[in-house]
Amino acid sequence: MGSGRSLVTAVVATIEAMILSMIRSVGHTLIGNLIGREEQLPVHILDRFPELRGARFRRGGLPLRVGGWCLGAASVTGITLWRTIWLSRRAPLDPGLLLHELRHVHQFGASPLFPVAYAWESLRYGYHHNRFEADARSFAARRLLEADSPPLTPS
Ligand SMILES: [Zn+2]
């Protein structure tokens, strides 16, 4: 009967391993849905815009949904909290978007009261006319122009 018992032990061990792996994958998915997954930007983008090294990037996650709820949408393409930029799972790595969100990293760094000031601006003037959004748009546009035009040579 020894082999019967070892077969039972082996089956129980296999079932245990399957259950553990299911729990791990569900946990992984839950955490992924909550905080997203770390994303490394490709070198050609970092070489063109080295300042993007000053931010951390994640794909997916709850902050995008919360941002969406604030704007009456299911999700937003990008959202920044302090030094972390969350990009929606399908958002292309568009330098304009990355630079826009990077400006929000700068804004978070400039004042501990930035989140309050940002919320106030949004409530008072709306998302588009929020001066922090206007600043992020013009920053991204300026950096894209600089990157596209050849450097000025001293005369
Ligand atoms: Zn913005």
Describe the protein.
This protein is an alpha+beta fold. The protein folds into two domains: 1-35; 37-148, no CATH class. It is 61% helix and 10% strand. It is built from six helices and four strands. It is elongated, with a radius of gyration of 23 Å. The protein binds zinc ion. Zinc ion is lined by residues 100, 104, 133, 136.
Please indicate the count of domains: 2
Distinct bound molecules: zinc ion
Across the major sheet, the strand order is: 1-2-4-3
Strand content: 5-15%
What structural class should be given to the helix and strand makeup?
alpha+beta
Low-pLDDT regions: none
Query: What is the N-to-C succession of helices and strands?
Result: HEHEHEEHHH
Which descriptors would you attach to this protein?
61% helix; 6 helices; alpha+beta; 4 strands; 2 domains; binds zinc ion; 155 residues
Topology:
Elements: H1 2-35, E1 37-39, H2 43-48, E2 56-59, H3 62-70, E3 78-81, E4 84-87, H4 95-110, H5 114-125, H6 131-148
Parallel strand pairs: 2-4
Antiparallel strand pairs: 1-2, 3-4
Bound molecules: zinc ion.
Zinc ion (ZN) is lined by residues 100, 104, 133, 136.
